[in-house]
Design goal:
single chain, mainly beta, 7-stranded parallel beta sheet
Length: about 230
């Protein structure tokens, strides 16, 4: 479906539970209301134009067959549960302008890997909760905050690099990540804003350019995180 050029806004719940299979949102549309495409079970392809800055709460929640999302660089905000329950969504290229990924944004998604653009500053609580197939995530170099239980029960995630820009990691951020064996922090030590249980007992390594064989520090070797040993 293609939205007419005369339309500037898609109202809340406008296409809720409809049988849409694809949607192109042109540049003339500047607003999408909450739950606009909620539970569109057959929706497979979405193209979001340059007029949209916010993907609001539950916009595509429950779109079980959604497999392809293209968004313009105008998007700065991914709202609460915006892409929750999107089982077929194995990857997504976020806008290079996204600043905030709100809570539950990708709850129970089908994501296997994702790279967060360097614009992202905040990952909300439970943002990737139960994205059980998520194996790899590259975090933004300008990320500041990882909120409570952000990666709760991402059971296939095996390792992650925490950028040195991160100032705050809230409680249980990696709880239930059963395959997570290594968390590599680019900081040299825990920051004041790190909760005591942020790592849920996982192995945490701190960056050191100088040799340190205490089994708690790491460095890059040909671009690969490597524990000093």
């Amino acid at each position: 479906m293609e939205i007419p050029s005369t339309v500037t806004a898609i109202e809340r719940s406008a296409f809720n539970s409809s049988s849409l299979k694809n949607i192109t949102i042109p540049d003339n549309v500047i607003s999408i209301g909450e739950e606009a495409f909620y539970s569109c079970f057959d929706l497979a392809t979405v193209n979001i134009g340059n007029g949209i800055t916010h993907i609001r709460e539950k916009t595509f929640d429950g779109c079980h067959l959604l497999a392809s999302v293209t968004m313009a660089n105008s998007v700065i905000y991914v709202g609460d549960s915006a892409f929750a329950d999107t089982y077929a969504l194995e990857s997504i290229a976020l806008s290079d302008s996204v600043l905030y990924i709100e809570g539950y944004a990708f709850w129970v998604s089908g994501l296997i890997d994702i790279t967060l653009p360097d614009s992202v500053e905040i990952i909300g609580d439970c943002a990737f909760w139960e994205s059980i197939w998520l194996e790899s995530i590259t975090l933004s170099k300008n990320l500041r905050v990882i909120k409570e239980e952000a990666f709760l029960e991402c059971g296939y995630l095996t390792s992650i690099i925490i950028p040195k820009s991160v100032e705050k990691i809230e409680t249980r951020a990696f709880e239930g990540c059963t395959a997570l064996t290594s968390i590599y922090c680019e900081a040299t030590e825990a920051q004041e804003g790190f909760a005591t249980d942020w790592h849920s007992g996982k192995n945490v390594y701190w960056y050191s350019e100088t040799e340190n064989k205490d089994n708690k520090h790491w460095r890059y070797v040909e671009g690969v995180p490597t524990v000093w040993a």
